[in-house]
Amino acid sequence: MDATITQDAPTALTGFSREAVLDLSRRKGDPDWVRDARLAAWDHYETLPAPARTDEEWRRTDLRALKLDRLAPFAGLDQERVSLDALSQNGHAADRDGALAIGSADQRAGVVVQRDATTLSADVDPSLAAQGVIFCDLDTAVRDHADLVRRYFMTEAVPVGFGKYEALHAAFWQGGTFLYVPRNVSVELPFRSFAQAQEPGAAVFTHSLVVLEEGAEAFFVDAYSSPTQDKQSFASAVVELILRRDAKLRYVQVQDWGRHAWSFLTERATLADRAELKSLHVTLGSRFSKNSIGSHLRGEDTLAEMLGISFADGNQFFDHHTWQLHESPHATSDLEFKSALKGSARTVYSGLIKVSEGAQKTDAYQQNRNLVLSPTARADSIPNLEIAANDVRCTHGATISQVEEEHIFYLQARGIPRTEAQKLIVEGFFRPVIDRIPVEEIQGFLQAAIGRKVGM
């Protein structure tokens, strides 16, 4: 795509091109190795084929309304840093309009707040920094911890050549957060990362890179949000979770982009021997959301718990693909994704449990449940198994059902308004997943978000 000059775009360029890559790198002051990596990624992007409706993962996905050539490829590079207190007072990333809260200092291990391509504020508990914990925005990590970034950034979990949109992300990444926890360091309080977008007609590329060394433990919360705007926007997120032996990570992600956004997420976790990952993915916002979420159980005796909640309304389209990839013996994966939908919304779920030939004694479970709240909504569910070992226990299940009018009538007959009755039923539907999250703040946030969705 050729870049064209516009009069009103502060980035000066629209569309994605090699020139836009160079302009972004220059404005950010990238070191030479980052600029060269961006250009190499752009070459991958131009070489890789675009997803086609004949590809199984994209068969139910229509991209014709996405206009990449009309977007500003980056935005908000020159915003000023502000204090966390000021952000909270102004409602940025605070518990306002239902967003997750920054939390007070005694409720977090560290926080990074970003808007468009700029880091507004960042901090980390000094006692953790003294133990070698690194928690900062990705630009700071490139400057101060270049060896670690070069080693892990889009090399192991999500390689640059993973796919066309992942290559575009590698060329244009702008914001992002880096968490590194050294060997045998355990952190109980959550690290919190907030990515916000506010410039109309622009693309945002946020990246989360989490590395836990042997025996390390951490809790990481990712939150994406923006107000709804008139112009289409593009949100590209890549999440890389790298767990070494005996490492334990709890990862929570909440996506609440505005209804103008087209959201693409690729997340991959790699687990070494005896590593444990417990993840939750919440999808509430955007006009269009395409999520590819995978756990690679590469070591023995690993555990991956993968939970998901989504609620689509209006004309929203949510497409989730999950991967439980067992490559070693004695590993366990447990997946439960639940979706509610109303209006003319549509959801797609496709999941794969894949067990390699040597991965004996695998125990894998996959469950997808869908609750349809209106006659014009539609849910598709496609669970899959691919088993190459002969001593495993692998099961999957999928359901798509409507709310029984009899249940609504039962509650209404007891004086409960119809909207409140639906809310109770939907909350009960999601409750088994919510109860598996041992964090009261997140439970409360989900309950409030579900209530708002039901009442829309």
Features:
21 strands; 10-stranded mixed β-sheet; disordered N terminus; 456 residues; SUF_FeS_clus_asmbl_SufBD_core; SufBD_N; 2 domains; SUF_FeS_clus_asmbl_SufBD_sf; 22% helix; Iron-sulfur cluster assembly protein SufD; 9-stranded mixed β-sheet; alpha/beta; 10 helices
Morphology call: globular
- Tell me the major beta sheet: 10 strands, mixed
Put simply, the count of helices is: 10
Rg calc: 21 Å
Supply the helix-strand structural class. Answer: alpha/beta
Strand order of the largest sheet: 4-3-7-9-11-13-15-17-19-21
Helix content: 10-25%
Beta-strand residue fraction: 35-45%
Give unreliable regions as ranges. 1-12, 91-97
Annotation, overall tally of beta strands = 21
Intertermini distance: 39 Å
Quick check: average pLDDT? 90
Number of domains: 2
InterPro entries: Fe-S_cluster_assembly_SufBD, SUF_FeS_clus_asmbl_SufBD_core, SUF_FeS_clus_asmbl_SufBD_sf, SUF_FeS_clus_asmbl_SufD, SufBD_N
Protein name: Iron-sulfur cluster assembly protein SufD
Domain SUF system FeS cluster assembly SufBD N-terminal: 129-190
Organism: uncultured Thermomicrobiales bacterium
